[in-house]
Every structure is written in structure tokens, then in C-alpha cells.
Amino acid sequence: KAGVTQTPRYLIKTRGQQVTLSCSPISGHRSVSWYQQTPGQGLQFLFEYFSETQRNKGNFPGRFSGRQFSNSRSEMNVSTLELGDSALYLCASSSSGGSSYNEQFFGPGTRLTVL
Amino acid sequence: AQSVTQLGSHVSVSEGALVLLRCNYSSSVPPYLFWYVQYPNQGLQLLLKYTSAATLVKGINGFEAEFKKSETSFHLTKPSAHMSDAAEYFCAVGPGGSYIPTFGRGTSLIVHP
């Protein structure tokens, strides 16, 4: 099975711009989660989508949004970029659903640099 | 609510020495526990997981962890460190009412030759 893929791997933007990151989960996985990782804050949960619905949400401002498509692929969007948004953005997929609970499988991440 | 505490943001060992990375958790329900490893510029990779079967869990790359309910701990060990073990290690606990695990802050393992 192919793993979780994220595109692009690296991105450089300037303040005020917006950016869209893409994530393709493992085939058959319906849950996709997004995390922001920075040296200062560690791994922070952004949101999770399951079957095209946002099921869980972390404590991030509304500039951070996401969506999931019918094929489970997911995108996250950050509008009005700030310097502090520079981070590694990780996507993780899981087969969790209903009463099951399984581990998450992570992609390699997208390194976003805001200048 | 659930939480994870990883003691020590950095752990330094010599090659061949015992590796011990500490993780304590808090959970209001029987927990699922995970250890992940992250190499530079990569995503997280699952090392092992505990899901209420055997309390001693063996993972990849020679790592193992023991679930101790009385101590609410899930420490990660490896008998002999290798240079290639240098990485960031994350402990996580679930489910806690959602399908999203709670991650610890991570421990950076440094291996000296």
C-alpha cells in the first residue's frame, strides 16, 4: 500500500498571502488529521476530517481551514499568512471510525516558510 | 480528558548504552498508547502501540515499552543504542472521547559515538 503523500514538500510564501496544502491518505483510510509542528510549540493538532466532515478541531484561528473530498483526499488552507505560521505541516490518516480506534500514519510533511 | 508527559526534552546516551525514554499519561478511560519516531525532515513513524493486550509491547528497531497501570507509565527502552536511533520520539495516548490521540512534547534522543 502506498503511504500518506503530501504536496508540496516545501513552500515559501510572504506575509499576507494564502496557501493550500494537499494530503492523500492511505487507500481505505477515511480519517485525515492535520498537525502543525514548530520547535517552540511541538506538535499541535489543527483539525480532523472523517467522511468529508470536520469531526475534531484544535485551537487555531479561523485563518486555518480544511476540507476533505469524497475520495478522502484533504486540503488545508491558511489565509493571510503570518511569520508565525512558518512550520512543518503534517498530515496523518487513520482507519478509525465507528467504534474502532487505530494508530495514525503520517506523511512526510510540508515545510512552509513565511517571509 | 487525557494528557501525556514526556520527562526530558533531550536524552543523551553513548552508542551501545541502554536507552530509556519516559512517558506518563493521564486518561479517564482505558488507554491506547503509542510511541512514534521522527527522523529529521520526515513525518512520524509508529514504533509500537499498546491496546490492552500484553503489557510488554515489542516494536520495530529493537524498541519495546511496558505498560504499567499503577504508575500510569509507558516508558520506551532499547538495550543497546545505535547511532541511527538519534531522532525525536513522541509518546501519544488515546482515545479520550475523540479519535485523535494526545501527543507529548517529544524527547530528542542524542547518541554519542
What layout of secondary structure does this protein have?
The complex is a heterodimer of chains A (115) and B (113).
Chain A (H helix, E strand, L loop, with lengths): L4 E3 L2 E4 L5 E6 L6 E8 L3 E9 L2 E5 L6 E5 L5 E5 L8 E8 L10 E2 L3 E5 L1
Parallel strand pairs in A: 2-11
Antiparallel strand pairs in A: 1-3, 3-8, 4-5, 4-9, 5-6, 7-8, 9-10, 9-11
Chain B lengths: L2 E5 L2 E5 L4 E8 L5 E7 L5 E7 L5 E3 L5 E5 L4 E6 L8 E8 L7 E2 L3 E6 L1
Parallel strand pairs in B: 2-11
Antiparallel strand pairs in B: 1-3, 3-8, 4-5, 4-9, 6-7, 7-8, 9-10, 9-11
SSE ordering of chain B: EEEEEEEEEEE
Q: Which word captures the global form of chain A?
A: globular
The first-to-last residue Cα distance of chain A is 37 Å
Low-pLDDT windows of residues of chain A: none
Number of strands of chain A: 11
Measured as a percent range, the helix fraction of chain B is: under 10%
The count of strands of chain B amounts to 11
